[in-house]
Amino acid sequence: MTTIALAGAGNIGTGLLRLLSTTSAGKLLRAKTVLVRDPNKSRPGLPEGIAVTTQASDLWNDPEVSVVVELLGGVTDSLLVVSSALKAGKSVVTANKNLMAEHGPELFALARKHGVCLGFEASVCGGIPIIRTMTEALRGDRLNTVEGIVNGTTNYLLTRMSEERATYAQCLVDAQRLGFAEPDPEYDVSGKDAVCKAGILATLAFGGYVDFRQVPTAGIESLELEDIRQAEAMGYRIKLIASARRTAAGFDAEVGPVLLPLAHPLASIRMEDNAVLLESDFLVKTLLSGKGAGPNPTALSLLADLLDLAEGRGRVPSAEHPFLGKAVELLGSQASQSRFYVRTKVPDRPGVLAQVAGLFGKKGISIASVLQPEVPGSTGETLVPLILTTHTTIRSRLNEVLAQLEAEGWGTNVVLRIQED
Amino acid sequence: MTTIALAGAGNIGTGLLRLLSTTSAGKLLRAKTVLVRDPNKSRPGLPEGIAVTTQASDLWNDPEVSVVVELLGGVTDSLLVVSSALKAGKSVVTANKNLMAEHGPELFALARKHGVCLGFEASVCGGIPIIRTMTEALRGDRLNTVEGIVNGTTNYLLTRMSEERATYAQCLVDAQRLGFAEPDPEYDVSGKDAVCKAGILATLAFGGYVDFRQVPTAGIESLELEDIRQAEAMGYRIKLIASARRTAAGFDAEVGPVLLPLAHPLASIRMEDNAVLLESDFLVKTLLSGKGAGPNPTALSLLADLLDLAEGRGRVPSAEHPFLGKAVELLGSQASQSRFYVRTKVPDRPGVLAQVAGLFGKKGISIASVLQPEVPGSTGETLVPLILTTHTTIRSRLNEVLAQLEAEGWGTNVVLRIQED
Fold first, then answer.
1. Measuring CA to CA, which residue among B187, B244, B259 is closest to residue B212?
2. Are strands B284-291 and A284-291 parallel, antiparallel or unpaired?
3. Burial group, residue A249, by CB count within 10 angstroms (0-12, 13-18, 19+)
4. How would residue A48 be classed by pLDDT, with cut points 50, 70 and 90?
5. Do A139 and B304 lie within an 8 Å CB cutoff?
6. Which pLDDT band, with edges at 50, 70 and 90, does B403 fall under?
7. Which of A242, B316, B410, B417 has the highest count of CB atoms within 10 angstroms of its CB?
8. What is the fold of A135-291?
């Protein structure tokens, strides 16, 4: 019997305790202590006999406890709990993407030093076994591409915008009402959540630490229904994609909305679902999809890591662990090559289209398509949308054109990568 | 360093040897011997220094060899090799679905008795880590439903019929030419391949041996383009589905063509791809999809099992191993409840539709839709197709109606399950 302690007793923690009490996993694992912030709060989800404490050190000072489950979120308290537990010789299982993305290298170094394990399956895509697929099932091969829909809120918003032809603002209100978006949605819609997961997935794919703060990130806040509509008219669907690619030029990682061809496996992932597409030398492509969040799927991923420990199958990190590998330098968005979708605004007067086209032409960027939808009642000074797609070009070169456009004072541009194949 | 021996040196075996020689897995695993049928055949895929033998006992009598990889196929030679190896204290890794589906219980009993491991990830859906997802990632939970597209040939045929409005016969010729169907396609198109995989997946889902010979099985040979067309007009796509379900009435398993709603995750799996959808108490739904066959994906799955052994992480089967559990009794198709699609043939004369409808009505089966497409130039005695869908009913009751229809001598009926949700 392995004795565990939980830091945090929210939905995921009580989901895990319910799993232990209702499945055969309870024969191998016993939860002894739960760390909470407010000891007086009623907690009907906690089973009888579990000790409640407000002293974090009760978790790692208890010789009976061999595993600490970290469910605090954030990176301050959680870092203290996880690093103290590892130093005290306890293995740790966590669902904390921020902590892993930011402090993975030092935490794996601590785990290695103290001969204990650090499980983080639950930190990326709740119920989808993406970490163990990358580190176990495919460990014989070299991963070339990981691309995923790893944030449920943004996928929910984009799906509803697409399927109901509703605006971003309308969908956001609905998503908040239904619990698919937080009251303050910024962390999700800006790509901040996705980029933590991108950092973790890229680290595993490339075999060395990828600092998520280096990953170019864009959110979906500036997308308009018009973008969704035009993308679909061209045969694409817009999805917020976290990607990591091994290219001839080097390692590339990115988070942002992308135009995916309708036949792309990620294009049909709907609503709050998550999915990750893996490509390796020997595998061609494999897709894993399902619920990416929620207390139950996340608890199940925690439990898989806990059962590894209870069965003596945990892995003390080796010197070759990806988080302990040499930090990976990314190409950065400037060097990336792609086709692009650009929505800009221009005054509705003669010569402007030629002027804009000339800016692209001078930089050697070939325009693949142009659309200037008719705006009823527009005058020569009305700013009207102009949507362009380019042939393959270098992002830095496109940025120069965009800077020139912005200098005209017509407003900001929306730029999305267009993915081929 | 773990020394392995291969039984069989076909595409999968040479794929595995290539993986060992090109990736870091070669630091942990060394292939010493290959068993072949014809020692004189040129084998450019075999690396220097590997011994070639025609004596199967060379594999299990060699004290240096600790793992035998079985790639012979079939159930006669493979059974001898695998059971002899296990008895000699060698662990075994196999890609052989027939062997596992038919002899799993005795082979796991042997492995348990001799304290060795038996890895079979590669036996179902080549490059998709479905076995380890079911047995590792989700082992904390109870699996309720497994349904999959587990045969690439039939999915290829159904996709082309659907997308090109081509007949079964036309698509089959093309599939054979392109290598997606065998010269004798019977094993694939009849569902015999899929039902072996269904037996293995159902065993893992239910925690006790499911004999594939008890699983009701239908193929796709009698499907006509008309069925594909009508199903799609009604909002369904026809796929050959292997399923295992825990229902209130008991355990259910089945292989056959099914009408899936277009939004069902398996409905969009195209061409030779495979996919498996898992549903458990805590997980909601998770889908794994990718290449289900081919030397490279299959070799990668073999390698994952081999690395487990090389790293000392193989599992000697416990007494609770699903293949060692009490044999599962299936409900059988007669008791299953569903909506059904029926294509029959009737003479094109007055009163026949009322007669057919009466047969259904008398058995208490409610008809949901009827279609009798116009057949140009038909006379009163021409047999014309009549397509019906039913509301939910019991299969045995429907079979009574179908028997009465067949007694009229109008020809055989095609019956497919319609899946809701």
1. B244
2. antiparallel
3. exposed
4. confident
5. yes
6. very high
7. A242
8. Dihydrodipicolinate Reductase; domain 2 (3.30.360)
Architecture of the domain defined by B140-291: 2-Layer Sandwich (3.30)
- pLDDT for the residue A295: 87
Task: Using CB atoms, pick whichever of B19, B140, B281 lies closest to residue A140.
Answer: B19
Question: Distance (Å, rounded) from C-alpha A413 to C-alpha A227?
Answer: 12
Q: Which of B19, B306, B313 sits opposite A313 (nearest CB)?
A: B313
User: What's the topology of domain A2-129+297-324?
Assistant: Rossmann fold (3.40.50)
The domain made up of B336-418 has a fold known as Alpha-Beta Plaits (3.30.70)
Helix (H, G, I), strand (E, B) or coil at B288: strand
User: What percent of chain A has a predicted confidence (pLDDT) above 70?
Assistant: 100
Residue A383, strand partner residues: A347
DSSP code, position A248: S
The two tokens of residue A259 are 């135009």
Contacts of A362 (CB under 8 A, 6+ apart): none
Q: pLDDT band for position A194 (50/70/90)?
A: very high
Average pLDDT, chain A: 93
Please tell me which residue of chain B has the smallest CA distance to A25: B140
CA A387 to CA A367: how far, in whole Å? 11
In the numeric block, the tokens 């799906």 are attached to: A159
Task: Give residue limits of the domains in chain B.
Answer: 2-128+313-324, 140-291, 336-418
Contact A283 B265 (CB under 8 A): no
Cβ–Cβ < 8 Å for A111, A251: no
- pLDDT at residue A335 tops 80: no
Query: Which residues are paired to A344 by β-bridges?
Result: A386
Angle (CA) A146-A150-A151 rounded to 5° is: 155
* Residue A197 known to be catalytic: yes
Nearest-by-Cβ selection for B303 from A140, A270, A285: A140
Which residues of B fall within a CB distance of 8 Å from A300? Answer: 138, 140-141, 280, 282-283
> Is pLDDT of B167 > 80?
yes
pLDDT of residue B233: 92
* CATH H superfamily, domain B2-128+313-324: NAD(P)-binding Rossmann-like Domain (3.40.50.720)
